[in-house]
């Protein structure tokens, strides 16, 4: 259908970004194809060590899902997106396909072993999440493709994650955010994956922050090194949400808190987190 | 832009009453409620998915009706503020907003009451954080949040065992 309608056509998922963009005339599609009436596109399934999310699974469904809560960082993300009304409509597939620089899911999936299934007229293919987001508002999706499933591997025992964002109010995108997934062996961090949100055109993997923790215990010293590395890795722009310098400090502070929560969760503790508001 | 846009036929229920309408595909749900059905209790505040003044329930879930097309409500059950009152009896949420002074200018009130209705239909004993989270998507420019919060607590108490 998309190939019949031509380049001007757009797919409508939850609409919580696309409809506002259309009102501003930033998006001006010639045709809108509403995906919401297709059944079987909203589900959360466990299957041989992975969780499978239907493309139109709403953030609210992920927030309420006990299955998704097995990966606590996914619950942190779903429960913190915008507000109740937006979470009731907005979907994981739509959010990823839009690839807004301030979107939450990409930051979190960057710290997990995840894949995106892309379906088009030439069939279905699987893209590792690391190759899916190409740039701001740009993904690996071809013009006639859509997201058909999001697959997330359940992290091993001893692994824990956390996602924290700072927001000026509930409905807006965060000013900055940090996602951490740690695998601990006793007091030592065996593996670390760290991504920063809203401080670049896409989520930024902070490799040096990961290196600062890998093979080390979580101490004030290693936390400081990881935070310093995040401050350097961030590439924010000054805008109405704050200056670039402010965002660098903010993202480093969020990362420090997220690492502490992730380490406790890796030890099997139940830790509740909520995004921080101005 | 085509000169005339073909209208689409949709069927849905609003506050239990069935409707069938022909609407332009670009019409927003809030425009249909206010302009086609004259249900002006649903307000337009920011029109940018921020303020929540246009909140209605779509099949029981709170949504911002300025961020959905009317055609997307085909076959749906919609609840607006006009549907809260039953046979001249105010809904316990409406009673509580009066009793706890949960409104000043009233512009945000319909949207907030529907956010409260979604909360209380799923959670009869909401804690402080549950209430704050439930109305995080509704802006009150009179900033009367404390009394709105108390009104929802009161409504939850009054609805217990109802």
Summarize the structure.
The complex is a heterodimer of chains A (278) and B (162). Chain A has helices at residues 2-5, 18-23, 59-64, 72-80, 84-89, 92-98, 105-109, 207-213, 220-233, 244-266; strands spanning 9-12, 31-34, 44-47, 50-53, 114-120, 123-128, 133-135, 138-139, 146-153, 159-167, 176-185, 188-197, 204-205, 276-277.
Structure, described:
The complex is a heterodimer of chains A (278) and B (162). Chain A contains ten helices and 14 strands. Chain A has helices spanning 2-5, 18-23, 59-64, 72-80, 84-89, 92-98, 105-109, 207-213, 220-233, 244-266; strands at residues 9-12, 31-34, 44-47, 50-53, 114-120, 123-128, 133-135, 138-139, 146-153, 159-167, 176-185, 188-197, 204-205, 276-277. The termini of chain A are far apart. Chain B has two domains: 8-83, Ubiquitin-like (UB roll), CATH 3.10.20; 92-159, DNA polymerase, domain 1, CATH 1.10.150.120. Chain B is 32% helix and 15% strand. Chain B is built from five helices and five strands; from the N terminus they run E-E-H-E-E-E-H-H-H-H. Chain B has helices at 29-36, 92-99, 109-122, 128-134, 145-159; strands spanning 8-14, 17-23, 55-58, 61-64, 77-79. In chain B, helix 2 (92-99) crosses helix 5. Chain B is globular, with a radius of gyration of 16 Å. The model of chain B has no long low-confidence stretch (mean pLDDT 96). Classes of the chains: A alpha+beta (278), B alpha+beta (162). Chains A and B meet through helix 2 and helix 5 of A and strand 4 and helix 4 of B.
């Amino acid at each position: 259908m998309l190939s019949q309608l031509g380049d001007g056509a757009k797919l409508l998922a939850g609409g919580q970004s696309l409809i506002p963009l259309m009102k501003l005339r930033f998006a001006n599609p010639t045709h809108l194809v509403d995906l919401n009436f297709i059944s079987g596109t909203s589900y959360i399934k466990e299957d041989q060590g992975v969780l499978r999310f239907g493309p139109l699974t709403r953030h609210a469904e992920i927030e309420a899902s006990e299955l998704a809560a097995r990966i606590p960082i996914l619950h942190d993300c779903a429960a913190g997106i915008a507000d109740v009304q937006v979470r009731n409509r907005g979907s994981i597939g739509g959010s990823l396909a839009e690839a807004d620089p301030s979107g939450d899911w990409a930051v979190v999936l960057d710290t997990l072993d995840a894949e995106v299934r892309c379906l088009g007229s030439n069939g279905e293919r699987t893209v590792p999440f690391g190759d899916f987001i190409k740039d701001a508002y740009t993904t690996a999706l071809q013009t006639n493709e859509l997201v058909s499933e999001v697959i997330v591997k359940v992290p091993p025992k001893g692994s824990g994650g956390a996602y924290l964002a700072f927001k000026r109010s509930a409905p807006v995108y965060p000013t900055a955010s940090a996602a951490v997934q740690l695998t601990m062996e006793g007091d030592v961090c065996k593996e670390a994956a760290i991504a920063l949100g809203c401080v670049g055109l896409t989520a930024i993997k902070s490799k040096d922050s990961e290196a600062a923790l890998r093979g080390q215990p979580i101490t004030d010293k290693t936390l400081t090194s990881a935070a310093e590395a995040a401050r350097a890795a961030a590439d924010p722009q000054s805008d109405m949400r704050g200056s670039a310098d402010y965002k660098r400090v903010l993202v480093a502070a969020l990362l420090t808190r997220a690492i502490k929560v992730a380490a406790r969760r890796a030890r099997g503790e139940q830790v509740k987190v909520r995004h921080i508001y101005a | 832009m085509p000169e005339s846009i073909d209208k689409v036929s949709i069927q849905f229920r609003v506050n239990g009453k069935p409707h069938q309408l022909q609407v332009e595909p670009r019409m927003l749900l809030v425009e249909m409620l206010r302009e086609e059905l004259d249900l002006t209790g649903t307000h337009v505040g920011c029109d940018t998915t921020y303020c929540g003044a246009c909140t209605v329930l779509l099949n029981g879930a709170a949504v911002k009706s300025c961020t959905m097309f009317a055609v997307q409500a085909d076959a749906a059950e919609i609840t607006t503020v006009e549907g809260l009152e039953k046979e001249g009896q105010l809904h316990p949420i409406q009673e509580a907003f009066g009793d706890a002074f949960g409104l000043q200018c009233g512009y945000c009130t319909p949207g907030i009451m529907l956010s409260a209705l979604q909360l209380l239909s799923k959670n009869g004993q909401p804690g402080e954080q549950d209430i704050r989270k439930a109305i995080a998507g509704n802006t009150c420019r009179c900033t009367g949040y404390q009394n709105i919060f108390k009104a929802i607590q009161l409504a939850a108490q009054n609805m217990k065992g109802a």
